[in-house]
Automatic annotation (TrEMBL), chain A:
Single GO molecular function: sequence-specific DNA binding
InterPro entries: Translin_C, Translin_fam, Translin_N, Translin_sf
Entry's Gene Ontology cellular component terms: cytoplasm; nucleus
Domain of life from the UniProt record: Eukaryota
Stored Pfam families: Translin
Signal peptide (residue range): none
Record's subcellular location: Cytoplasm; Nucleus
Biased composition range(s): Basic and acidic residues: 192-205, 225-239
Name of the molecule in the record: Translin family-domain-containing protein
Principal cellular location given in the protein's record: cytoplasm
TrEMBL record, chain B:
Subcellular location: Cytoplasm; Nucleus
GO molecular function ontology, one term from the record: sequence-specific DNA binding
GO cellular component: cytoplasm; nucleus
Keywords, alphabetical: Cytoplasm, DNA-binding, Nucleus, RNA-binding
Annotated protein name in UniProt: Translin
Source taxon at top rank: Eukaryota
Recorded family membership: Belongs to the translin family.
Classification via InterPro entries: Translin, Translin_C, Translin_fam, Translin_N, Translin_sf
Gene Ontology biological process terms, A to Z: RNA metabolic process
Amino acid sequence: MEEGKMDGAPAPKRAKIGSENNPKPIDNSTGNTMSGFKRDRHGNEKRFNNGPRPAPKPKVAVVRNAYTPMFEQLRDELDAHHDRRDRLGKVSRDITGLSKKIIFALQRVRTINPDLPPQIQAEVDSRLAEISKLLATMAPDVQGINRYRYSRSLMCLEELAEALTFAHYLKTQTLLKPDELSAFVEELTRKGAVSEDGAKDKDEPMPDAGNTPAPASGEQETTDNDNKLAEKEEQRQPKLEPLTMSTTEDDYFYGVFDLSGEMMRFATTSTALTGKMAGAEDERTIVEDMHELGSFFEMLPMKAGDRKQWEKKLDVMRQSVRKVERLGYDRMIRGSERPQGWVPDLTADQPGDDEE
Amino acid sequence: MAPPMIDPALFDQLKDNIEKDSSIRKDLEQIIEELNQNVSYTQGVLTKIHSTPRSKYPALLSQVESGIKKELETTTRLAQFASQYPYYKYNYKWGRTLQDAIATVLLHAWLGGMGSDSKPGEVGRLLTLEEVGHVFEVPVNLKDRDAFHITIEEYLLALISVVEDLSRLAMNSVTLGDTELAVQISGFIKDLHGGFQMLNLKNDILRKRVDSVKYAVKKVEDVVYDLSLRNLIPAKDAQ
């Protein structure tokens, strides 16, 4: 290992980049990024114009002692862990971005309908295809014990849960269930690996967000041992099956909390632009749906271990419910009078609440 | 008739899972609290090293050992319980306590305890992560399955606590007239410091604690310097 070592060799002569004598690029692994030299436009190291290069600051030579091998081993293990975490974090950010794009596309829908408008469906499918590939790249790093180890680097799954539950609602006016969500994400991951081989790609229709496949194990997977189930499943299948990853309960909960915000936005826009409350008017509208969703979460016990976060999200959900209530009321009172495109004033009786 | 917004069975399913999770956490907290008490006692006994000459170590070390035995029993119960669930779901709850337990074991061994028939204890012995695992009878750095184990981070953080304790002991052993021990501690801490320098650390708790090792180095260097100034370094070469 060369970290921290500086040999006493004289400074190399000016050389073009890529030649043997050119010092190697900055080694970022030590975190010591101040050891680089300025380079001129030819890529050669700059030297003082008038005089030899000053002697390099003496670096402490690494003296090996009895414990060095042990620390080297521990270092390698820690490095592998950090690298894995960084890899996952990068992909997670990409998946989050794509999920948000799906949500933006879905917000252009105006009515609840089993078929999304073709252009929007096409965009959703295309984003899901990209997400699918990215999930497949993550899967090897989140098997078994690693699934929960890196959960802080997998925040994208909450955003994805939000997008998928939103799409499901717009098509079916129902709430996607956690095991359906999990099965769908597992399927997405598997498909991502398959299309990496180039075998099937755009020709294969992406699983529709509204037509979720049956849960893989045939039973509910919302136990504490989500990753253990994924592990078992992986073992059951023949070795050629691609690895998969699934959502945890927390991914589902926090995704659905955020779903209520998207439903509220959808309600606001669709009511304004269509003049009607979304949903089948003779059955139930989005107002009732928001009430049901809100009460559902009010009744659930608070999840331990994350009280603050849960309370915050619950509070935002409450405000979304009240905004949609207001919409319903306005529609009832003023429905026929309202000119097209009029948007109700939602800020009137709720001081200090935020849009988000 | 359209299906309901939310499947009626879903509520009970989610409620049961949340309640199960809460119950698991409560049970864990109970076991961890007991381990905490075991550790506190053992740590208390270990504070006596700062006022006990080496000749009286055997009695002290066996008292420490009885404290450690309790720690091991409780850890076994913790391991059995926690292994039923994903390790990284709840490990943050016992991390600190387990670290402290590991530190007591490391310090005990360094002072000459933890001997066995095949390998008697000796002053200056550093247990490896694997050896610590054997003492606690749990796996270490577990990767191929999901169960309770001791992590590298816990081991390293425990080691740093031991370094801090030993740097204090260096000073007190001089007071007790045991300059040889002070010199041995100094060499040990400086070696460990070199080892810690090899790690590529991120901006986390480990990085902050590793920073404290250099203060321990300074402390022991000052002690050795004081000794050498007054020709108090023992004649034979310090190991």
